[in-house]
Amino acid sequence: MTPEAPRPAPAKRRDAYFDNAKYLAIVLVAVAHAWEPVMDGSRATRAAYMLVYTFHMPAFIIISGYFSRSFQARPDQLKRLVSGVVVPYVVFEVAYTLFKRWADEDPHYPFSMNDPIYLTWFLIALFVWRLSTPLWRSVKWPLAVALALAAVGTLTPGMGQSLDLQRILQFLPFFVLGLSLRPEHFQLLRRREVRLLALPVLAGAAVFTYWVAPDVRMGWFYRSTSAVELDAPWWAGPLMTLGLFGCALLLTAAFLAWVPRRRTWFTVLGAGTICGYLLHGFLVKSLDYLGLVAQFPWLAEPAGVIVVTLAAAAAVTLLCTPPVRSALRVVTEPELSWAFRRDVTRLSSGRAGAASSRTSR
């Protein structure tokens, strides 16, 4: 009897935990963005905004770093980096510029590939971070070095004017931390005592942010400017870098501790968070460009803030669904085989099964 040919190993399933985390994080991103036009005059909304802004992007970036651990700058990986990061950056940089020209009645607003508009900064930052992965995987004390670079960034006025380098440096420690994490670190968050401890941590953070909300400048949380540009003494930059990193790490751990491990109704949406991220900005910017809050002042009242919150969460949920991801794949996950050599395309295709099981954003 002729022995059967060995069957190929089945593709590894996506990890439900990380898809759940990505979806919940992108909901927080969208909701926080939607609060921006309606939080003036509301201490509670400003405090909630500050609390969420402390950790929502750090959580997203840590996960991005964790799933970039295997990046070695192989030709097939560079191809995916171009198709999954560079192409969406160019497309949405143009799209947001055109949208601002039309909706904000600013027809002369310039196109600029080196000055990311609104939320496109994350794509160019991810491109730089991922390219630097082999370096961070090679040096001693990578997190300490990344924190030092972030602190130095706060001492350099004007850095954010080119490719948003200020944000690239100030958020860099979270990406490097993600590169340094291993599965067992996330296993620790499953412990019952960690989950219980997360509740008073979140409650204490909420009380603290409500207390300091009127006095803290939000620019610190955006990480897009230096200390001097925030009218602060130079030493405040490195101090806030370390302080905010510690706060973000603590709140991210508390957040991740309560992310469901099992498959839920929203697990499938974790694969489409790049679509939710890139598209929800058009809805949020419409509130600003079209002056909807001025036209409907009730949106800034407590009931209106609740409506805005629910609408933002529902909208980004719809934008993460498989049909939207499929429709947008031509610009978020283009094949681009025509632009690369055949050997690179074959190598990329050969690894596609394995890559499909990983979350790279």
TrEMBL record:
Keyword Membrane on entry: yes
TM segment ranges: 16-35, 47-68, 80-99, 111-129, 194-213, 233-258, 265-283, 303-321
Residues in Acyltransferase domain copies: 16-314
Record keywords: Membrane, Transmembrane, Transmembrane helix
Record-linked InterPro entries: Acyl_transf_3_dom, Nod_factor_acetyltransferase
Protein name (record): Acyltransferase 3 domain-containing protein
Species the sequence originates in: Streptomyces tirandamycinicus
GO molecular function, one term: acyltransferase activity, transferring groups other than amino-acyl groups
